Amino acid sequence: MAELLTESERTAELPALGxxxxxxxxxxxxxxxxxxxxxxxxxxxxxxxxxxxxxxLNHHPEWTNVYNVVDVTLTTHDCGGxxxxxxxxxxxxxxxxxxxxxxxxxxxxxxxxxxxHAAGKRS
Length: 123
Prior knowledge:
Layout: H1 7-19, E1 23-24, E2 31-36, H2 40-57, E3 62-66, E4 69-74, H3 84-97, E5 101-103, H4 113-122
Antiparallel strand pairs: 1-2, 2-4, 2-5, 3-4
């Protein structure tokens, strides 16, 4: 069973993940990142590659995909919070994501390209 990160592990590891766009989830011991790709194919390709890494770690993300957007939350359910598995998977996902845009303000609505295109047609 995985163990929760210690305070020293959190202090050492989480700031670097924050620099890449991972942020704490309010009211949960979890981290979240919102990635925006150029199109659906790139988003799906990222998810496919990330799924292979998740399987290798036997650690699976909570995520959603709408068109070009992948919204990922990482936490380790069997220990009730962040563990080394989350750090490993976050780092692997960062490598896989390539040039994806990162939405750093998680308080803002998440808008996919299909919504942007639809809004442009209505104007």
